[in-house]
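Annotated sample (chain length 233).
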Amino acid sequence: MAVADSLAEVRERLAAAAARAGRADRPPLLVAVTKNQPDEALLEAVRAGQLDFGENYLQKALPRMQIAGLEDVRWHLVGRLQSNKAKRAADAFYLLHGIDSASAGRALSRAVVARGEAAAPCRLLLQIKLGGGQGRAGVEEARAEQLLRQLADMPGLSIEGLTGVADPGQEARPQFERLRLLRERLRGLDLPRAAMVEISAGMSADYEDAIMEGSTMVRIGRAVFGQRERGES
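Output written by the structure step:
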């Protein structure tokens, strides 16, 4: 199936899920994840009206930001950020989805502050570990408030909400429910620099469950682009 046709189908399903969740007027933002996809697939998606794209790695995204025809794209870093790449990430991305440590936050804060008082804040999401064992990215739910308070004290940051990836070995919707309830609790703290209005959750296999639990952004690769050249979303 052509990328344009896949996009149309995904958007239709997003709208239907949002309607079932009572949010027909507020469908989630679709972030098309382009890891290992050819450049032409991105250009085809842009021609079909898609402007938000996600990449897992900074070094893969930077060359694509220079491709003719992609000048208006909003780039999302959907993988874990390494602190030594914070300055370049703060400059390059519209939103960072994978912040799970105070060290990454401090590196981002330093990068933004170094730009001067007029610099726009770095927009980020706090990544929560929903399951999957020790190797899984994200902060444990029990430590989320502590980390959020640390990040909220750092100048130059804007913590927009939470993100999480469901453990495929468990039912997805209860995991997304936990993420929604945690976001509601953390939002109630009313911390500075922490609007906490977003939930980035849901991928090709489970995005409809995520939308039913309040997801405001979904990160979809395979359902838009088909099977990746290497691996699978």
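Annotation: The radius of gyration is 17 Å.
Annotation: The longest helix spans residues 3-20.
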